[in-house]
Fold:
Amino acid sequence: MAPPMPEPGPVATRRQQWTGAIAIAVSMLLLAVVAPWAGDELSGQHIGAGDTLTANDTVSLTVAEGWSLGDGGGLFTLIENGDTTLTLVPAGSVAEFGTAEETIATDLAALEADPANEWSIGEVQTSTTDAGDTALNVVSSSEASVQEIWVISDGTSVVTLLVISTPDDHDRVAASIAQMARSVRILGEGL
Structure:
């Protein structure tokens, strides 16, 4: 024998049904029209030279001349200049992600294991940011692409900048990439 059916709850009035339907329709319209428009307004927006760009409240950099916001999303911030894209990955703890040396070694191992490209991997260079943090960088190239990796650490947190470019375009923007990497300031851990 089946258990008895529960008593029906209150039924919405016709006016309540229409109010709910209108609220849903307005929400859908906002999502369909306003959200993509807002994304387009930010994407490709010119960033002035000297402007500070902050990612996830954990890291900032000073933008060099000629860079624009890209189609980033989530935790990463993308800026673009011609055929070059720079991805700024927010700060994470050294305890979780490893030291700068360990992080760049992991990134290089991934390049070496890439079956789609034969990478010529440069030597890791060490420098210091304007904030006094350790910065490691390496430029790797294949026939059609250049990847430049910057890993910056204050000893507690680590930040990664990944640059993907064409060989010709990388030559054009290399100095501005280094300028922005030197300007990185770690504001705290976030990932």
The first helix runs from residue 14 to 42.
